[in-house]
Design a protein that fits this description.
- Keywords: ATP-binding, Cell shape, Cell wall biogenesis/degradation, Cytoplasm, Ligase, Magnesium, Manganese, Metal-binding, Nucleotide-binding, Peptidoglycan synthesis.
- It catalyses: 2 D-alanine + ATP = D-alanyl-D-alanine + ADP + phosphate + H(+).
- Cell wall formation.
- Its cofactor is Mg(2+); Mn(2+).
- The protein has 316 residues and is an alpha+beta fold.
- It folds into three domains: 8-87, 3-Layer(aba) Sandwich (Rossmann fold); 95-113 and 188-299, 2-Layer Sandwich (D-amino Acid Aminotransferase, Chain A, domain 1), CATH 3.30.470.20; 117-185, Dna Ligase, domain 1 (2-Layer Sandwich), CATH 3.30.1490.
- 40% of the residues lie in helices and 21% in strands.
- The strands form three sheets. Strands 8, 9, 10, 11, 12 and 13 form a six-stranded antiparallel sheet that branches. It has a four-stranded antiparallel sheet with strand order 4-7-5-6. A three-stranded parallel sheet has the order 2-1-3.
Length: 316
Amino acid sequence: MTSSSERVLILAGGLSYERDVSLRSGRRVLDALKAVGVDAELRDSDVTLLPTLREDPPSAVIIALHGAIGEDGSLRGVLDLCGVPYVGSDARSARLAWDKPSTKAVLVEAGIPTPEWVALPHDRFSELGAVAVLDRIVDRLGLPVMVKPAQGGSGLGATVVHDKESLPAAMVGCFAYDTTALVERFAVGVDVAVSIIDLGEGPIALPAVEIVPSGGVYDYAARYTAGVTTWHAPARLAADVSVHVAEVALAAHKALGLRDLSRVDLIVTPQGECTVLEVNVAPGMTETSLLPMAVQAAGLDLGEVLAGLLRRAASR
């Protein structure tokens, strides 16, 4: 992205619960690109977007929108209709990664470890009787369990449940963010995130980032409040475990058919094995986000990486 005629749009904001985080990501992407000489403009996703794309199409788009519009494939499908290239996975793959139960089904089919789970729509939860359903969940998965929205990010609506009495409240909290709850067996171990980038020579795994939240749970506050979480980049893992974690993350990225960039969240057990929790196609870019930490740990410049991804998108 070096020509004076080239211009990129950074889409951020939107109307999801993650709007504020998205705006922070967008501003950081803007600053990183401008630092390496890329002509970039930060735009919200609103009714003026499509006329702008038609009248003054950009060379490429970076999607810094979090939540449904940025991750469920819908906006990507619209960009495809407009013939506007963008960084990141296509609409089909993004839609697959956005829905956690679908993601986990693909992982299982590919032989990639992921915690055992049950996906429960709110309607079925009510029709079948909450108490009876929760009893069966505990019998099947044991305790503790993680309850989280089937679709969503940033830890919103997610709760670790250690005792049976706390499960109903966790389900209610989850249903405030989505109509389907994902309940999965809680994985004990080191919480790590592996960012994947592809600058044209195939996807590579950046150094894993270890996440140590002071409260023990990497929820919304732990992700975006300075001083609440400690990160180690690279993660404090044995060399062979680091290699294994990278291999599993790359396998997940490929199994879902993703492209350009993603972030794979995993738990590394005390035995050095790992299990995939979820996969994100629009990783955060804020000052406390994991992909920029991984880029720095790899000795790379965030602006140069983003510019390379834009070049790759524009060439498609």
